[in-house]
């Protein structure tokens, strides 16, 4: 059984999307990050960076004691390897998938998060930061669009953990002040994923 320490944010949704898509059994443990539950000692023991998502797998593939992990993309990689799903075994597609997975973890997620912060959370308007993260967000959507003009999925021929990691961040495109119509290949990819039954189950449980 997999316990998923969860809040319905882009990083949390990624893991639920994987577990539903791969049809793995799991149990949601809600962490209310607006109430500071991520600082609870029992949660910090699993996720010392005080962020969701995290997982505890009580039946890891090596048959040993439970495995706990934090960092959403490390969790996606673990689950893909455990299940044998959503990560190609073919050398090129596997590493291109991991490349886009790391791109999401190191670039797309953090930059869009700063964009969100300076547009919607910062107690005062900081025009330089608003402009910087808006331009960077547009640049990253451009990179994503060019990739999806060239390939149906981020990793290549197959839907994968790279798509699953990136999609929940695009869900908030309006909030990020990104008109999706300006990025037609992203829009097409976004709609293809949105209609997957696993996505429906996560968004409308
Ligand atoms: N790099 C981390 C980021 C996780 C993250 O930023 N989680 C946010 C919600 S989306 C969180 O738990 N924030 C609570 C806090 O920072 O105290 C990942 O990919 O898992």
TrEMBL record:
Its EC number is 1.8.4.-. It is an enzyme of class 1 (oxidoreductase). Residues 1-87 form the GST N-terminal domain. The keyword Manganese does not apply. The keyword Cell inner membrane does not apply. Residues 90-205 form the GST C-terminal domain. Pfam families: GST_C_2, GST_N. GO terms for molecular function: disulfide oxidoreductase activity. Keywords: Oxidoreductase. InterPro entries: Glutathione-S-Trfase_C-like, Glutathione-S-Trfase_C_sf, Glutathione_S-Trfase, Glutathione_S-Trfase_N, Thioredoxin-like_sf. It comes from the Bacteria. PANTHER family: DISULFIDE-BOND OXIDOREDUCTASE YFCG, GLUTATHIONE S-TRANSFERASE-RELATED. This is GSH-dependent disulfide bond oxidoreductase. The lineage of its organism: Bacteria, Pseudomonadati, Pseudomonadota, Gammaproteobacteria, Enterobacterales.
